[in-house]
Write a structure and sequence with these properties.
It is a single chain. This protein is of the alpha/beta class. The protein is built from ten helices and eight strands. Strands 1-2-3-4-5-6-7-8 form an eight-stranded parallel β-sheet, with helices on both faces. Strand 4, helix 5 and strand 5 form a beta-alpha-beta unit. The structure holds zinc ion. Zinc ion binds next to loops. Keywords: Hydrolase, Metal-binding. It comes from Streptomyces asoensis. InterPro entries: Metal_Hydrolase, TatD-like, UCP005295.
């Protein structure tokens, strides 16, 4: 079984997680740039973070046989902080980089006017750079948040077929599917979607354009949720080709829209900017 986790924050995870993910079948990940929990106070801390997503983290993933790409954006939550907004000016030079396969995570957190502005501006950046967009839908007031998101996408230059709407659930899947966008589901240990609800959604709405992710980060989450969904699909009567479509081919096709996806595992480099993962030399 080969698994592509299309949304996971590896910066917040350990090397044990990389080992366990590889053993479970994970061979590729996309790491969206997001909020760190601790608010950033200047655009410069975004830039160091983006550099880590393009440098140290793919280096680290390669040590464990996993291909790593990222998405770059001003996240919805920090779009409300005037100290962070100048990072929008820095995004174009990052969106040119080979490891960047989408603009994201963008979207709504609290549905404020500042979030409207940042979402619209970053959808335009995606269109200008020939990149798809990863759009986070709010965890509260989900259906209203989805509808407002779809309105802003419809007003943008980016076609819905180049948008992945993430954190969907039973209340939002139908309208999201009708929009023509790609459908992302984050499967968590004890909130939001679980693997059994996910299987029920797949039975009702089909497998086309559906992506499943762990969205594992610094909070309560599990980087093996993708594998648990695959196992639950098989137990529910789906075939191995169905699992491969949802857990591999769909994310490959979506992020492949960037023209930048490289799935052969990188040869692990010995050092990244003079550092290895070993302490005290070999
Ligand atoms: Zn996320």
């Amino acid at each position: 079984m080969r698994i592509f986790d299309p949304h996971i924050h590896m910066t917040s995870r350990t090397t044990d997680d990389y080992r366990a993910m590889y053993a479970a079948g994970v061979r590729a990940v996309v790491e969206p740039s997001f909020w760190l929990g601790q608010p950033r106070t200047s655009p410069e801390s975004f830039l160091d973070y983006f550099d880590a997503l393009l440098g140290f983290e793919p280096f680290r993933a390669a040590q464990y046989g996993i291909a790593h790409h990222c998405t770059i954006a001003l996240n919805p939550k920090e779009a409300n902080d005037p100290r962070c907004l100048p990072v929008l000016e820095e995004l174009p030079r990052y969106l040119l980089k080979d490891g960047v396969v989408a603009v994201g995570e963008i979207g709504y957190d609290s549905m404020t006017p500042a979030e409207d502005t940042a979402l619209a501006a970053q959808l335009e950046l995606a269109a200008e750079h020939g990149l798809p967009a990863l759009v986070h839908t709010p965890h509260r007031d989900k259906l209203a948040g989805l509808r407002r998101t779809l309105d802003v996408v419809a007003e943008s230059q980016l076609p819905a077929g180049r948008v992945l709407l993430d954190h969907l659930n039973e209340t939002t899947v139908k309208e999201a599917k009708d929009s023509g966008a790609w459908l992302g589901f984050s499967v968590y240990p004890d909130t939001k979607m679980d693997e059994h609800r996910m299987v029920a959604v797949l039975k009702e709405y089909g497998l086309d354009r559906v992506l499943v992710n762990s969205a594992a980060d610094w909070g309560n989450s599990d980087p093996l949720k993708t594998r648990q969904v695959a196992d639950a699909m098989l137990a529910a009567g789906f075939g191995e080709d169905d699992v491969d479509q949802v857990l591999w081919r769909n994310p490959v096709t979506f992020y492949g829209l960037s023209g930048r996806l490289v799935l052969e595992p990188a040869k692990p480099a010995a050092l990244h900017e003079g550092n290895s993962l070993l302490r005290g030399g070999e």
